[in-house]
Design brief:
Number of strands: 15
Order of helices and strands: EEEHHEHEHEHEHHEHEHHHEEEEHEEHHH
Structural class: alpha/beta
Radius of gyration: 23 Å
Helix content: 40-55%
Number of helices: 15
Strand order of the largest sheet: 9-8-7-6-5-4-10-11
Distance between the termini: 27 Å
Amino acid sequence: MINEFTLHNNAMLFDNTTGVFFEKPYVGFGLERLNNHNKRYLQSLLSLLSQNAVHRSNADISCDAVKQYFKLNGFTELILKTTDECNLRCKYCVYSDHYPYTSQYSHNRMPLSTAISAVDYYLNCIIDQQLFLNKTPFIAFYGGEPLLNFNLVKGVIEHVEETYPNLLVHYTITTNGIMLKDKHIADFLRSHNVIICVSIDGYRDNHDRNRLKTNGAPTYDEICEIVHSYFQDYQLIYSLCCIDYLTDLRKLYQYYMTYDRMSGGDMPHLLRVSQIFDLGTDYYDQFSAESQERFASDYRHLEAEYIRLAQNGESNWFLDLMIGQELLHVFDRPKFGNLGGFYVVNGCCVPGEKIYVYPDGTFGVCEKVGIDDIKIGDIHNGIDFKCVSSWINKMNRIMSDFCGACTTSSACSVCFSQLTSAESLGFTKRKCALRKAAFFHCIEVINEIERKNPNFFTNKVLSIVKRNSNADISEGLLNIMLS
């Protein structure tokens, strides 16, 4: 399917089948019509397709095809949902009443025996594939608030060290930070080089507007004090920031340019900026049209600064995260799109690439999937490849019904996390239109930059590849989490 748009007053066409751009008139796929980026894109596309045994088609994906995929690709990470409990009541949490399709807070905690069974399954899979796959094992602790079940965290790490002394296993934990004030917990995590990701929503007012204790008390000052007291000299601590339409983006920018470690400050380096999830929720009903326009205006201001710097061959780490990351995803579509042939629309991972373990020992798709209906195995039987293929085929049917007529589906990031039930996506036509507009806006920005600074994004991609090839543990995790 072909999508027509205008780029700097030139009539352009986007071919959704190949992901290639053309100038009008449309004259087929002759390479003489392609610019350097399209040549590189096609080469990458052909390379990716040649490495996969399964190619995109309307036929159902078989259980054997899924087995073959995992044989060739292995697993990326084990994520243990240690508990459904939390000691905060963040207003935007997917456990809150704003997200009726997700599970609620509960007192469920994963037993240590369940966690150890999951760890043994995962690490033995890694060991079995080490001869032909160079996979670094990552074990992540998630919640709720995972440190409410600290004995499990401690027990898992000690079990791995005793049982798999020859495996270099890396650990990460996502926490709200409150329980890090316990010196025993802080010392243990530090002594075992656990990568700590603390949720800190930038400047105080933005953070304390949403991230509250169960009694409604703010948390910014307490978390800052904990970081300064116990982790001032710890390199493996990072922050995660959530934003919404009341976030002052210019103030956020200045905050990180002043206080982030990357800028010479003393706050944990920012790992990711995420807009609060906007599907299947009434959270965004609270914002006025004026606040949305103010947010959009601030974003355009930061984007203009990113463009100015890029045109002059310069970079800013915060703008790279806030603005540049999405541009790189669009520019390097073969890397970030799932072009192996499992899905009719790009964006989905194969369930089981991450092994996400619920407190009862069943396996889910990943930590971003809000509904609990999607189960793909358990600690007793491992990954159920038949179940995985069934979910892929169901997802394809859902996407075919919803996205079948879309002219930019190959560039979309729709995935299991957008399901609001086992049968439906949480999209509206308006949200789809906004996504399509955002994609073509990214193309315009990329073009605007490269007209004055050719190969800026190619060099960006090459620098990331080079950095990854020489990455230490923290950089390796950053790129796994940002991909």
